[in-house]
């Protein structure tokens, strides 16, 4: 009988727990399972084309909801980071039932409810930073931000006690001074009693703000995502695949070069993923067999021969350690395909999984692994988060007027 992997918690603290939850959440995403160790390239191109996004983001509204909650908490007299994080968690959980009304799609925690582990603040924090919604000159982590807020609160109390802040100042004025001095947020303040009328859809003001941030932020303004929004190319929300983009939209040279390079890598590595599924099924996966024939016929007319195995790793500035693990694999894969010998290709794929996971955990080397009809492991052709980003673009489009923009 196959042994079931059981995951238990060791209480290292919230920071370590959040890291583990982040990994587990990513592994549940369609593109995240990385059987052959190419995730560093996949994620690198995704960050170039669609920065600030992730495979577990659902709706664009959270780019505003998270700041709304945090801005409110900043105005409270919370000086302990743990208390702040606990309050943040409570407010995020409370938001679930509010957003679920009218059977709204994409509500984080819609199924898990109070048991939700990975909160929107964690899921969207990188994007909030990337788009300059949070003015973070030192790239503070979420925990770092909370510690900074609490430290500023404590400092303000000391200044007030020592007479450096006029005791006659009203709380509201003092809080306004604090928020201005901190400069943490670049976001419109939430409407009064916003929870009473909030929905998962962006308002016109929110959609305009988010679009503006993406096309102006230093970390996203030169991306494909920003180009789409800047030029109101909302027809992309109708595209099923990232490969359609350059067939329908004329891209500027710098973006086109990155896009085409990403597409070449996707085409190159897709064969390895197909082959993985052929081996896993013992040749019984008819879909994988058919996909393999199509792929092999399409790339052996010169594409594989001419593919530059260094272009992606050089463009993405991949670390020396990751290069040392990745380049030999893609070099051998290229040579194996050029050899035309399926046995050499299969042995290379099997050896790669063993290298990454070890013999006991490698599925292709395990007698305990049985293939089930319809199962496909390792994801399909790389989409670089396009399908997740498409939902965010659609939300912005709808907020700005919907169908009239498409």
Architecture overview:
The chain is mainly alpha-helical and 406 residues long. Helices cover 55% and strands 0% of the residues. It has 17 helices and no strands. The chain has helices at residues 14-27, 39-49, 62-74, 81-99, 120-130, 142-161, 171-182, 204-216, 224-230, 245-248, 253-280, 286-299, 303-306, 311-315, 320-339, 342-357, 386-399. Mean pLDDT is 86; it is low at 1-30 and 167-181.
**How many strands?**
0
User: Could you list the spans in which at least 5 consecutive residues all have pLDDT below 50?
Assistant: 1-30, 167-181
Number of discrete helical segments: 17
Helix content range of the residues, please? 55-70%
User: Could you give a short account of the major beta sheet?
Assistant: none
**Could you say which structural class the secondary elements and strand pairing correspond to?**
mainly alpha
Mean pLDDT, rounded to whole units? 86
Global morphology: elongated
Distance between the termini: 54 Å
Order of helices and strands: HHHHHHHHHHHHHHHHH
Beta-sheet strand percentage? under 5%
């Amino acid at each position: 009988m196959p042994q079931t992997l059981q995951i238990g918690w060791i209480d290292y603290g919230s920071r370590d727990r959040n890291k583990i939850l982040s990994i587990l959440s990513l592994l549940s995403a369609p593109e995240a399972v990385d059987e052959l160790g190419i995730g560093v390239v996949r994620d690198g191109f995704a960050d170039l084309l669609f920065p600030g996004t992730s495979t577990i983001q659902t709706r664009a509204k959270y780019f505003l909801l998270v700041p709304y909650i945090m801005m409110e908490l900043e105005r409270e007299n919370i000086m302990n980071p743990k208390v702040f994080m606990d309050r943040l968690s409570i407010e995020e959980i409370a938001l679930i039932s509010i957003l679920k009304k009218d059977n709204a799609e994409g509500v984080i925690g819609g199924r898990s409810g109070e048991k939700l582990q990975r909160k929107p603040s964690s899921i969207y924090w990188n994007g909030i930073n990337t788009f300059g919604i949070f003015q973070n000159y030192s790239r503070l982590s979420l925990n770092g931000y909370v510690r900074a807020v609490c430290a500023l609160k404590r400092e303000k109390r000391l200044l007030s006690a020592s007479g450096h802040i006029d005791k006659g100042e009203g709380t509201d004025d003092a809080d306004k001074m604090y928020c201005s001095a901190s400069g943490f947020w670049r976001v419109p303040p939430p409407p009064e009693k916003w929870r009473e009328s909030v929905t998962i859809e962006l308002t016109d003001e929110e959609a305009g703000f988010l679009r503006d941030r993406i096309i102006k932020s230093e970390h996203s303004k030169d991306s494909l995502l920003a180009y789409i929004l800047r030029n109101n190319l909302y027809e992309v929300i109708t595209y099923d695949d990232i490969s359609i983009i350059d067939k329908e939209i004329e891209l500027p040279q710098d973006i086109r070069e990155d896009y085409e390079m990403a597409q070449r890598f996707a085409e190159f590595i897709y064969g390895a993923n197909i082959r993985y599924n052929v081996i896993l099924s013992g040749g019984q996966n008819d879909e994988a067999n058919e996909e393999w024939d199509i792929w092999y016929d399409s790339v052996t007319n010169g594409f594989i021969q001419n593919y530059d195995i260094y272009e992606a790793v050089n463009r993405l500035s991949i670390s020396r350690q990751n290069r040392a693990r990745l380049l030999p694999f893609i070099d051998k894969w290229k040579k194996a395909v050029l050899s035309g010998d399926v046995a050499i290709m299969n042995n290379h794929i099997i050896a790669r999984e063993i290298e990454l996971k070890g013999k006991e955990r490698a599925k292709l080397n395990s007698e305990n692994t049985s293939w089930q009809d319809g199962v496909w492991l390792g994801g399909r052709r790389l989409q670089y988060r396009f399908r997740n980003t498409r939902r965010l673009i659609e939300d912005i489009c709808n907020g700005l007027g919907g169908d009239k923009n498409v």
